[in-house]
Each structure stands twice: as C-alpha cells, then as structure tokens.
Amino acid sequence: MDAAASPTPALDRIRVGSAPDSWGVWFADDPAQVPWRRFLDEVAEAGYAWIELGPYGYLPTDPARLREETARRGLSVSAGTVFSALHRGPAVWDETWEQVSRVASLARDTGARHLVVIPSFWRDDKTAEIVESPELTAEQWHHLAVGTERLAREVRDAYGLTIAVHPHADTHIDTEAHVERFLDATDPSLVNLCLDTGHYAYCGGDSVELIKTYGERIGYLHLKQVDPAVLAGVVEQGTPFGPAVRQGVMCEPPTGVPALEPVLAAAQGLGVDLFAIVEQDMYPCPPDQPLPIARRTRAFLRSCGA
C-alpha cells in the first residue's frame, strides 16, 4: 500500500474535548460572553463529548443541575480550573483552599478527575499593569514547590482529584527554564503538568521536546496554536497577554504553531490516557464566531486520528 494512502493511526489514548475558553469565556459573569446554555448547546453540536468547567460560576454550580444539563447534551466534565498564588507562601493558603474547595467539589460531583491549577499572573488580567516581578526569588520558588505539593496531597485526599499545573503566559511558570525548574523542584508522584501547547509556544517552548523529556509528568493537555506573525509583534512590542489575545495571537488550527500532529503522536506514545482539551483564547469575540471554528477544529483533530 502507498504510504500516503495509509490510514491515520488512531490516537486511542487521547480524549478530545473543548472548554468555555474556546467560546471567549474568561470570567464567571461578563456581558461580552455567550450565555452558558449556548456554550453547552454549541460545544455538543461541534462534536465534542468532554468539557471543562471554565471560570467558577459561569456554568451552574449546583452539581445535580449541571449533571442534568451536560448529560442531556451528551457531555461529560473532564476538569475544573483554579488560579493560585502559592509562591507567596503559607499566608495565602486559607484563601487558596477556599477557592480550590469550591471548584474541586463541583468537579468531583460532576464526575471529573482532574483539577487544572494556573499560577497567578504577574500582570493584572484586565488592566495589564505589572503587579509583581516576573522573576521569583529562591524563597518564592521554594514556597511555590512546597505549596503545590501540599495542594496536590490535600486535593487528592479530600476530593480524589489529581492536579495538573498549567504553565501560562505572564505567570511565573511560563518559559522552558521556568517549567523545568518547577518540575525538578516538585514530587513527580504528586505534581503533574497541564501542557498547553499554545502557551508553551508563546513562551518559546517546544511541546514535543517537553513530552519526550518529562513525559511521566504530563497529566493533561490543552490544545492551542499561536500565530507566529502576531507573536513576533507581541514579543517585539512586549505586549501583555490579554491585549495579545485581542490581536489574535492564538489562532485556529492548523494555521499556527506548534503543529499538533507530532504533539498528539508524542502524547499517544506515552501509553497513558490523556485528555486533550481545545482552548483557543479569543476573549472577547463575536457570539457567532466560536461554533464554526469549533466545528472545523474538531474535524481537523479527527483527521489527526483523535
């Protein structure tokens, strides 16, 4: 058989989903965002079976109601998401745990097994004002590592969830050097990574190399691509992440980088079941924009074998 005609290998360890983020949802309540019912209707219509909770309070927070709303659309919840500032030390633990408990409880009660943990921004997420140094001190790195391990243990013990820490632009876990420092400082039996292909490329990292080097630490995937032309301007101008998104730095696959086919193949090669959740940052966006993109993205991922 001609190799070009060979069927695409099935990525049978990859479970594809999407998230409110791909519908322009960044906040629990914002008139610029599509209503939650429309998101659920359209994500199912686009062909996805898995979703994330998004910002706490965007989707119904009563687990029975949310289970009913998702089940009748053929959807299941893969994870919840929280933000944390654990580099600030024990003083922020109670505040962190209060937020984590709400999200982890809802995630557990809707059948999810994962909690995605995003480090806090060193810029204000709305004004882009720099509020902290982009570089942590040695003491802050220690607080971050110890605090994350504590969070992983307590989330596991209280809610039966595993955490996946999400390297993210404009946070302290962003570049290859920062991601490797964080992984090397934390217990592999407790702390996994949510590899977001777009954020990692935005910050200069190579997702395939990260999977090859730290494969045992990859517990979850976010699928995203960056427009290299827009990114070049962002880097040159020092544009904050929020305005960069409004400029279209995150783009529809397969038009950007990294190529997702080798990322998915490398993830499949790990031999473990992984969620791969599509997240195309595009806040704010016209309400009719997300569904056609979501349909095309789902078709593209099917063409990759997912």
Automatic annotation (TrEMBL):
Keywords, sorted A to Z: Lyase
Coiled coil: none
Keyword Lyase: yes
Record's keyword annotation contains Lyase: yes
Protein name as catalogued: Inosose dehydratase
Gene3D superfamilies in the cross-refs: Divalent-metal-dependent TIM barrel enzymes
Xylose isomerase-like TIM barrel domain sequence ranges: 40-303
Domain of life the protein comes from: Bacteria
PANTHER family with a match to the protein in the record: HYDROXYPYRUVATE ISOMERASE (PTHR12110), INOSOSE DEHYDRATASE (PTHR12110:SF41)
Family annotation (InterPro entries): IolE/XylAMocC-like, Xyl_isomerase-like_sf, Xyl_isomerase-like_TIM-brl
Pfam families per record: AP_endonuc_2
Originating organism: Streptomyces olivoverticillatus
Annotated EC: 4.2.1.44
GO molecular function: myo-inosose-2 dehydratase activity
